[in-house]
Each structure stands twice: as structure tokens, then as C-alpha cells.
Specification:
By secondary structure, this protein is of the alpha/beta class. 39% of the residues lie in helices and 18% in strands.
């Protein structure tokens, strides 16, 4: 089993985490970012699948947006980052330690974390890396499916400096069709965006039976 983190620890957040959160919100506001469509308020557990992932600043702006929405976002991190003096800071920032050396997979470990908490908004860069051409990794989908929670698609429009969150979607088990729905929603927000067109083509390839996941 993964190390389950209590939803309420009997301690105050670390000074460093409070300072970092204030800096993130300051940067978010100073850069003029706005929320185009808010996070759903009627659900407490979900996976936020965000794209595009083109810069290390993506984390800052998405963290700022969730803070404005009064949602404490979470992220996955290597368990070695949660050791020693860094442990409390990483937990306070919303980190969820994942130990890839354990017999149960990262998907299973995070699903256990969802089951143990009353609220959890897991932010994932669905493309995986900044070097992606726009294709999505399927980890976000498998986690949501294993945890029995909806997926909330999200986008960042760097030109308009807006972040938008889409309608929650329960994984149907048909990855290709669900990915196509997400691609269509993203393209409705930023039409003809090249990376979203790649995602649309990826979804169509999966629907057509090609092993492109």
C-alpha cells in the first residue's frame, strides 16, 4: 500500500509552503491570468487533465488558478522527494508520493490515495513532457478509471492568458471515444491549435483500432 497521507494533519503548514503559495498566486495575478470557465463545485474528487504542457510555468499558472478557485490541487511525485526536511513541504504543496519500486503500480497507489481522502483534485500534464507533439499519455485515464472519479479537462490559452476547466467526464472504458470528446472540447476553446489537432488525430487512430495510446 502507498503511504496514505491524512486529510488533516495535526500541524500547521510549513512556513516555506505558505511563502511559495503566496508567490505562486502573486505571479499568477501579476501576469494577468484569468479563469475562463471554473472548476466544478459539486464534486470533491477528480483528475484534472491539463494541456498543453509547453513550459515549467504551466504548474505555476494552474496552481494559481486552482488557488483562486479555492481548491487545493495535488500532484504526483517520486517518493524520494518526500524524505527528510522536504517531506512536510512537499505534502503541504499537495504532493502525493509514488514509489515505483513497490509491487503495486503508480495507478494503484494513487487510486488508494483517492479512496483514503474526502477531497482530492489531482492535476496531471496529460501530454507527459514539454517535448510532446500533442499526443497524450494514458496515465490520467487509468488513474481516474481505477479510482472511480471523473476527469476534468483543462486548457491554458497563453495568448489570451486564460485557463478553462471543462465538464467532468466519467471514463466509459472506451479510451479512444473519451479522448475524442476531450479533443473536441479543447478545439472548441482554441480552434485549430496544432497540438489539439494532433490529439484529435490520436483519438481517431485509437478508435480505428491502431495501438496508439
Amino acid at each position: 500500500m502507498t503511504e496514505t497521507i491524512p486529510s488533516k494533519e495535526l500541524r500547521k503548514p510549513t512556513i516555506l509552503s505558505r511563502i511559495v503559495r503566496r508567490i505562486i498566486l502573486l505571479i499568477y495575478n501579476w501576469n494577468g491570468w484569468k479563469i475562463a470557465s471554473p472548476l466544478p463545485k459539486d464534486i470533491k474528487k477528480y483528475v484534472i487533465a491539463g494541456a498543453p504542457h509547453t513550459s515549467n510555468w504551466d504548474f505555476v499558472f494552474f496552481a494559481g488558478a486552482t488557488d483562486v478557485e479555492q481548491v487545493k490541487s495535488n500532484f504526483m511525485g517520486k517518493h524520494t522527494l518526500f524524505q527528510g526536511i522536504m517531506r512536510n513541504f512537499m505534502l503541504d504543496m499537495g504532493g502525493i508520493p509514488v514509489d515505483r519500486t513497490k509491487s503495486n503500480s503508480a495507478v494503484e497507489q494513487v487510486a488508494e490515495e483517492f479512496a483514503a481522502r474526502e477531497e482530492l483534485a489531482l492535476v496531471m500534464a496529460a501530454e507527459g513532457t514539454r517535448s510532446s507533439d500533442g499526443k497524450w499519455k494514458s496515465g490520467f485515464y487509468h488513474i481516474a478509471q481505477a479510482a472511480g472519479v471523473p476527469i476534468v479537462p483543462a486548457y491554458a490559452d497563453n495568448e489570451k492568458k486564460t485557463i478553462g476547466f471543462g465538464p467532468p467526464m466519467i471514463p466509459s472504458g472506451n479510451y479512444g471515444e473519451d479522448l475524442m470528446k476531450i479533443a473536441e472540447w479543447l478545439l472548441s476553446k482554441i480552434p485549430d491549435y496544432p497540438r489539439y489537432k494532433v490529439l484529435e488525430a490520436q483519438a481517431q487512430a485509437i478508435i480505428n483500432g491502431k495501438n496508439d495510446v
